[in-house]
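Submission sheet (multi-component)
Chains listed below:
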Amino acid sequence: MPDGLGSRITEISGTALPIRGNDIDTDRIVPARYLKEVTFDRMGEYPFFDERFDANGNPRPHPFNDPKYQGASILLANANFGSGSSREHAPQALYRFGIHAIVGESFAAIFTGNSLAIGLPTVTVSHDDMERLMAAVEAKPELKLSLDLSEKCLVFDGGVIPVEVSEMARKSLAEGYWDSTSTLAANMPKVRQVAARLPYLNGF
Amino acid sequence: MSERTLFDKVWDAHTVDILPTGQTQLFIGLHLVHEVTSPQAFAMLREAGLSVAFPERTFATADHIVPTDTRARPFLDAQAEEMMQAIEGNTRDFGIEFYGLDSERQGIVHVIGPQLGITQPGMTLACGDSHTATHGAFGTLAFGIGTTQVRDVLATQCLAMEKLKVRRINITGALSPGVYAKDVILAIIRRLGVGGGKGYAYEYGGTVVDRMTMDERMTVCNMSIEGGALVGYVNPDATTFNFLRGRTFAPPAEQFERATNYWLSMASDPDATYDDQIEMDGPAIEPTVTWGINPGQATGISERLPLPEELPDPAGAQRAYQHMGFTPGTPVRGIPIDVAFVGSCTNSRLSDLRAAAQVAKGKHVNPRVRAIVVPGSYGVKAEAEKEGLDQIFRDAGFEWRAAGCSMCLAMNPDQLHGRELCASSSNRNFIGRQGSPEGRTILMSPAMVAAAAISGQISDVREFL
Ligand code: SF4
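Outcome: structure written.
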């Protein structure tokens, strides 16, 4: 799990790493064979593994291998990022690689939920703004970006881009509710009341 | 805002509270667990000193990593063995019912829930697997979740969720012979797109769905996630009740009528309000196959491969063609295949095996093709063998395997090699999905897979019936 259980997350800054293409699925982000590990500890080694390395383990050209993007903490993505399998290994791998926020045109539903559950914000911008951002970062990889969740914007030398983030996610991150177990557990008496009135748990 | 739909009713009945974030705390009536997405969740529980809140509402099995050729332990793959021992230990320590390889109840989690009658209408259900929507075929609100959410359900039997919108998808008329439930869902995803269901639950209905068997409804609901919808469901009806009657965990005879009344009361009202409605013309659907690297990149069997510029995402189509090595504008029929796979939670139930066997009977698999049939569960395998389907497949040159996910995601030894092209009854044609980074997948119905296995190329199953 990310450190700082239930920490308050309002701002993420750093350099960015653009990964182009729509519909990037979680099988591509973490190939299934790495799901055989019973912990998430080593997931940071695996993002986009089969695209980054050939069959002999030699690196191929890929943004995640490119020295100029090393140390980036903000991932830039196009539409429907994280589609497919519900594997939390995907956001875990990105987080452990060093990505602490993802800005995209849109995200698949389970991926957004899994990311939020580990304190990894996913925010959206328009297609045109993403083009602008990616171009700016590709031209100048050392460009520093700052994602301000309270003001809902992405600030960098060269502009301010409005970002969309649901009020639920913003609040969850800002107040630490993203780490949900304790919030849910606080309601256990009510949970048992609901269980006691559901017909299928009580012989109909 | 939707009103008086099954989604609304089940959601309301399971609402525990509104959380400070505005999310709903939703009670989860049934939690299904498998070996791959649970070990980290159990570890988190241990770390926090928590127990499982409702162990009697939690069922576990092993499906993703299990070999299908031999079940001997320890597994040859040391990592798979470690994972198997983890679920055995975790379910024992936390008091959860576990169906392992020595159990006649073992199978793909989405096949055994319905088969054992654990999945029932009007319930909420969660599982750490994106194809959990399969259970929606029963009028169940079934959510695919991640590992941290698995921890939440284990610890509290609840999820923090945001309500979805509801889109009614009406499939009218009737299907033509040789057109199956798989073709219906591929046609829906082709039309609405792989991201089209984002933020929605899909309610499937109309005469085509009304006439479907439970197996067929499960196939349709199964691939809701491929259309971007977290949840898919069908309202419960007599077909649902007849399926459930007498199953191991279904309500016993003396409760069954009361249960039926409850289930019916949870179905969408005739005057329910939806956030969106879509009409699909059943007779217009033909056998459908994918040609690209996502399930929305699909075409009717008699059509030509689309030109990238005709599609909403030309760059994505180009990348897909590059991977698949196909030429836009050429027919999809006649593309030679290397591997044929009948299996996965989408299409590995008894009726799927029957449909494939009907095509394979008395014929022989093309000698260039490696063909395997993997039943969805131990129970399906036993029933199929009772009918002699295993013999039909073996005589035709298919390998007959034990139950598991197998080549759907290739976490066990069943994998594609190199650039092999697989005709597959599974649900995902993503790059690398079937175990080889260069491997290629064409999704289709089990009968179409059998037709492709026999002819050695993508074929129209209607010519085999
Ligand atoms: S059969 Fe495939 S899609 Fe279904 S649960 Fe197994 S791996 Fe997932």
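Remark: The longest strand of chain B covers residues 165-172.
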